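Lecture 7 notes: from sequence to structure.

We start with a single chain of 186 residues. Read the sequence below before looking at the structure.
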Amino acid sequence: MKKLLLLLVIVIILIVTLVIYFYEKDKNTIGFKVLYNGFITINLKLEDLPPTGPIVFTSYEQWEEFGEKYFPQYQGLYSYMTMYDEVNFNKEYLVFRSTIGAKTWYNLSFTSVEKVKILNNKIEIVFNEDEKAKDILNGILTTNEKVEATHPNILILKVKKEDIPSNLENLYQKNKDYGRPSKLKR
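Now the structure, written as tokens:
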């Protein structure tokens, strides 16, 4: 009888521990919607590379300013959100992230987003690790001296304003140096 009671107590403790673990694990997870996940072409002689992010935009003016700086030839990329999937900045924010693979003509990070979390006062994007990263040949780095291009993967998410703390560290700041070089080092 004592063994059965001890086993029952151990099972209850284990169940409670697992429930608490899984609750805490996803406590900081927030809802999101993927608006864009794809490649763009950047001419390195004419344009700066976009910062890696993630960066949170709290107004259309911020998003437009950022788009004009980093994507002048892709006005559709930063304005299309209001045409097809309207972003109401009174209720929603945009999250931007870009990635360039180690080999500029490959991008090994084209996997789906599993969740978005707030950790240590920063927004973090968690990718599905069960998916094999797609080894995508997304363009050839040209050898022509006049054109030098790369193809970053761009991810744009929509999140609820209420889920984002006002003191988040990676909110967009107009004059912040995001530390991204204007040209790739080879």
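The chain has a mean pLDDT of 76. Keep this in mind for problem set 3.
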